[in-house]
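PT: before anyone asks, these are the final sequences, not the draft ones from last week. 684 residues across everything. Please model them as a single complex and drop the result in this thread when it's through.
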Amino acid sequence: MADRVQGISSRLREGTAHKPAAPDGGTDKPVLSLRDLVVEIPTRYGVLRPVDGVSYDISAGEILGVVGESGAGKSMAGNAVIGLLDPPARIASGQVRLNGESIESLPRSEMRRLRGKQIGMVFQDPLTSLNPLLPIGEQLAETIQEHLPVTRREARARALAGLEEVGIPGAADRLDSYPHEFSGGMRQRVVIALALCAEPCMLIADEPTTALDVSVQAQIIALLKRLCRERGMAVMLVTHDMGVIAEAADRVAVMYAGRLAEIGPVADVLTAPRHPYTYGLMGSTPLAARGQRRLNQIPGAMPRLGHMPEGCAFHPRCPKAAPACSQSVPQPVVMGDGHLAACHFPMTVEPQEAAQ
Amino acid sequence: MLAYIIRRVFQSLLVLLIVGLIAFSMFRFVGDPIDNMLGQERTMEDIDRLRDQLGLNDPFVVQYWNFLTGAMQGDFGMSYRQGRPVAEILLERAPATLELAGVSALFAIVFGIGFGVLTAIRRDGVLANVVMTVSLIGVSLPTFLIGILLIYIFSVELGWLPSFGRGEVVRVGSWWTTGFLTESGLKALILPSITLGLYQMTLIMRLVRSEMLEVLRQDYIRFARARGLRERSVNFRHALKNTMVPVITVTGLQLGSIIAFAIITETVFQWPGVGLLFINAIQFVDIPVMAAYLMLISVMFVGINLIVDLLYVAIDPRLRADTTARAK
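LR: through. Structure below.
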């Protein structure tokens, strides 16, 4: 644990985070781009908006960390992208563009063909993500044959290659093993192999390390980073773990109550947060270098979806709240190179201050 | 694996031994057959001779031993009423019951699983709701009432199907008689099979439905969808297989009770099977027949349970002890 925390702070200070290939709207076309995405859930008591006007891009070979508290809408946005929103939740407005093409209103059958082939997804718990009754080679081959015009034998060969790529030792002997015969970390590798076996250009990893212990977490993060670079994949890494973000992501999007609070390169956002919420989050993250006894906390809790405050959703908890905050929703404002924050009164702290 | 099978077989034999004891104790404690077998003008000598002939004067343990060794060789003694070997009577009646039970079970399983999957996948569909509503009838009406209703509609009012009996039967082999080969035989099977299988069908259907709904919520189903697998594959390959373990348990037990409950259906439809034989045996305190029937039913229950246990292992790899060894 201490090791990892040390890793975060040293990495932040060195500022070694990988620079994105193209910051927002650059010459390089992003693989995924969300524009004002709104997800709504109609209920008896009114319409809830778990995702409310979120926009961001992810380029090839880039990992965007999406971070926020439980219920901030980060997973919901991921599910909306891959078309797996559970009814009655639905995309109400906005666009989801994959390689420039809108996919938010594709018919079900076309969306299905896209899943696995263009967009892969990894879930939180590797123990429950695999069908317990089918050998893993079987599950891999089935997925490969669904998307690629290959024979059974070729599919098995590709399945084997996929397992080797994610680092399953003795992969050839493990094709016919059942999920229960693997450890948690190995299962998450199998899950990643499954998500990537049809070579999608986009991967959504929904808290892929939350259910794993810390040393295995690091391995899985390293694996995801390697695959992202080698394959030139765009990766959406949904997590609530700032350590994982610092370790893996190139850029980070901070979500609060369904809205984007702040987005930018990891080094900038984590060391010099401009949104008071991000600032508060960083203050509540245990860093060994800081050597404090008590962690700062943000008073209160995130508002429930049905009881969203007027104006900025964060203002009831915000130390800098002013009358303007309860009147209008702040729009994202450019704070630096590819760094945006949605706040009327952004923080003006120096980078060194925030890190200490 | 082998050790598991041997253990299960051993347990099954123990159960049968205990059932045998219960069946046997009927001889001692349920009435005196002599009263029924000999007429009004019996003498004490007649009674003693018959007692001796039937072995009723032997000590308890000797009688039990004779009963067990006899039963194991298929000899259940003589029917008090018909004066013929019980085994012979049972063998004569068994095909009727087994065919009826088999068709009912098939009906219950095929429609139970089919409707269960349908109502789980199309939870809000019109057809699913109709099926669910109708299935309530199957669960709540007693078997004999369903039989009588069916007879009233299809035999009395519409005149399509026979109301009783097996129709024409054909002899196959030395002792098996079948109704499958004649039109009247097949027609005669329809109503009793539905009557007998309806309750089991609704039970299996509701079980499959609830299990399926549970499985469809699992992460691996979501992950299968996220990999772009077809609905058909998700529903039948990934979901249905995972619902099967509890379904097989209940189905197995239900198959046993199909044979046991055949008594009622056979009475309603005057079906010449073992169930009807048993009812008649009770009326005449024909204990050897009753004991043999009890043994027969328990052998079937135990046998089906054994098969169910072995099926678990075939379906769920996690129960195969030796596969974990292979992985290491």
